[in-house]
Amino acid sequence: MNTWNWLSIETARQKTASIGDVVEHLLRATEVDGGTAFLEKIPDVPGRDVSLILSIRSHPPKPGIATTLGQARMLHDLGNIELQAMELAVRTLAQFPEAPPEFRRELAEVAIEEARHFDLCLNALDELGSPWGSWPVHRSLWDMVVDGDLLSRVMIVHRYMEGSGLDAGTRLLEKLSGVKAPLAREVVGTIHREEVGHVSFGSSWFRKIARREGVDPDVYFAKWYPQILKAIPRNERPDYETRRRAGFNEFEIGVIETSFTATNFKMKREGPRPSLSMPGG
Ligand SMILES: [Fe+2]
Ligand SMILES: [Fe+2]
């Protein structure tokens, strides 16, 4: 199986079932031929077995979180994030065969964990009676990840997107604590706990890669975080404690705080946004 085929697989369960094979293949391929056979095989869009919306505004309204349907919808939206996180990890493995082997091995583990997160959501959706495909999904994470160098990829996916995911997880658990939702709480709680590891992976490799490139990681973070926030708006109040546990230093926390204060947490998710162009793109 090659990467192009894996990313294009449409069936959700087939994709999670074969994640181990594709990452093993990518790690081995790099050792054998430098991974060059895989470099041109990233499809523009990954395969989907559910209908797609191109704008978050056309997403059907969310039922209240106190209802079973509302909890299913939330898990459906979360599953869609996990699916794209899994695919983005594979995309990075395929596009950066020259990345440090230890980075690639750790990223392969992240990809496998994202697949497990997606499976947790799929199983819970079946149990709640609203299986995968009950709602349309967006593809905004995949689309917003611009091609650039390895440092910019780690910054945007593991520090920005997954870092913001920690804030979202905390706020979601707060909402769920007020309602009867044992299954949803268990799934979101497990994912939130394990995501700290993914962001920690991003934090430590961000600094290692930056130093290797002769870049000051704090200067880079201060330059790019506000620009990414404008291009990919987030409205959740940051959870600084969880972010600290995931490797954000006090300087970075300060950058995040300043950026959010400047936007007053009211960023437009629709309409024209500055386009993002990262180093090496
Ligand atoms: Fe995840
Ligand atoms: Fe993750």
Question: Topology, please?
Answer:
Blueprint: H1 3-8, H2 12-17, H3 19-33, H4 68-95, H5 101-127, H6 140-144, H7 150-177, H8 182-212, H9 217-231, H10 240-245, H11 250-263
The structure holds fe (ii) ion (2 copies).
Number of helices: 11
Q: What does the largest sheet look like? A: none
Q: Can you write the helix and strand succession as a string? A: HHHHHHHHHHH
Named once each, the bound ligands are: fe (ii) ion
Structural commentary:
The mean pLDDT is 91. Helix 3 (19-33) packs parallel to helix 4 and helix 4 packs antiparallel against helix 5. The chain folds into two domains: 1-144; 146-281, no CATH class. The chain contains eleven helices and no strands. The chain has helices at residues 3-8, 12-17, 19-33, 68-95, 101-127, 140-144, 150-177, 182-212, 217-231, 240-245, 250-263. It is 64% helix and 0% strand. The protein is globular, with a radius of gyration of 18 Å. By secondary structure, the chain is mainly α.
